[in-house]
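haha ok so turns out i had the wrong file open the whole time. this is the CORRECT one, sorry everyone. sequence first:
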Amino acid sequence: MEYKYELHAHTKEVSRCASLPVKEVIEEYKKAGYSGIVLTDHYSPMTFNPNEFFNKKKAIDHYLKAYREAKQYETEDFTVLLGMELRFYATVNDYIIYGITEEMLYELPFLLKTYIRRASRLLRERGCLFLQAHPFRKLITRANPDYLDGVEVFNGKASVEENESAAKWAEEINASVRTSGSDCHRHSSLGFGGIITQEPIKSNDDLIRILKNGNFKLIKEQKTS
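then structure:
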């Protein structure tokens, strides 16, 4: 039996650039035949209100709002996991984090202020995977591979050329983890990416193990317009 999982999706409640509320995101992915989703809402300067920059607990409570609601719609046949698309102050690079937990977010410093070297260390030493998202999107620069576990080699919102360049770069740096994600923000960007596995993913441990051992196929439904 095969299972489909989305690894890059956003919700209206947290990511200001997204238009789909979390309930609709989950409903639509269930309809599309997926077995689960990793919510990777933006964790960036645009995510938080000014008063949240000085109150980490309030900021994290806000960040987890969509994920906590999404867990209410989790079923035996559909898994919801917490992820993150991290962007630091004064940068345009984005990094996808897998394996993060609610407890880690409250325990860690406010990640916007840490930048890649420290953030990568803090997250990876806690068992998370740290990947660069859509590395050939306009204005983005490629990160030092020493700080990365892998690369998003297919992004549903990227062009054919950008995805081909990402896959080529992943080969050049010998990235150990190579993923695909729809980068879903609205209906038109839903269900173009993700992975197909031969076993169900029920936890972060399952996800990390499968991504590390490469026992999956990439979903790469390139948009034509």
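The mean pLDDT is 96.
again sry for the mixup
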